Amino acid sequence: MPRDFPALSGFYQALFLYFEPLSTISPAFLAWFFPGAAWFHNQLIPTEAPSKALDARTTMAIWQLGNCYMLLGLISSFVFRAIRDALPDNPEVQERILGASFTALALADATHIALSWVGLPEDLRYSFGSWNSMTHGNITFTLFLLSMRLAWFAGIGRQRYYYGKAAQKGQKSA
């Protein structure tokens, strides 16, 4: 039975508490185990011919990238659940802590999208049909997540408890 989580309800809860952590943890396993670092590396930029075997430095960098994906997924999963469980009757504080996390994630989303797009060869940047699933994940799906974080901040489809509320006497405004 789902627990009440006023600051992260409905669609936002399904997306940010379940789907996003799974979608960010999955690439770690793809890079570490199967299909492995070489496959992951070759998928970063869609090309006809995969590159040669990876040197030890590149393999290590791909494994470390996988670890970053794992870290993001675990932080979202564990921290958001801790917020829900530790503050069940305080949606304002829930929202303030989620907002801090979402701000960091939104900034990371924006830079991830920009760097992934700039890193593409010029002939692929606007050739969306030539993108593979990795490119769409790094750009298209991350843009979707960023849009949903911005919608959450705007209060679209949810009740607001802190962001967008007038400051009460003696409190700073958001």
Short description:
With 174 residues, the chain is mainly alpha-helical.
End-to-end gap? 33 Å
The total of beta strands comes to 0
- Mean pLDDT over all positions: 93
Secondary-structure element order, as H and E? HHHHHH
Radius of gyration: 19 Å
Strand content: under 5%
Please, how many domains? 1
Largest sheet, described in full? none
How many helices? The count is 6
Low-confidence stretches: none
> Helix content range of the residues, please?
55-70%
Which descriptor suits the 3D outline? elongated
SS-based class: mainly alpha
Topology at a glance:
Blueprint: H1 10-32, H2 37-43, H3 56-86, H4 91-119, H5 122-125, H6 133-154
Helix pairs in contact: 1-2, 1-3, 2-3, 3-4, 4-6
What does this structure look like?
- It is a single chain.
- With 174 residues, the chain is an all-alpha fold.
- The protein has one domain.
- 67% of the residues lie in helices and 0% in strands.
- Helix 1 crosses helix 2, helix 2 crosses helix 3 and helix 4 packs antiparallel against helix 6.
- The radius of gyration is 19 Å and the shape is elongated.
Output the keywords:
174 residues, mainly alpha, transmembrane, DUF7704, transmembrane helix
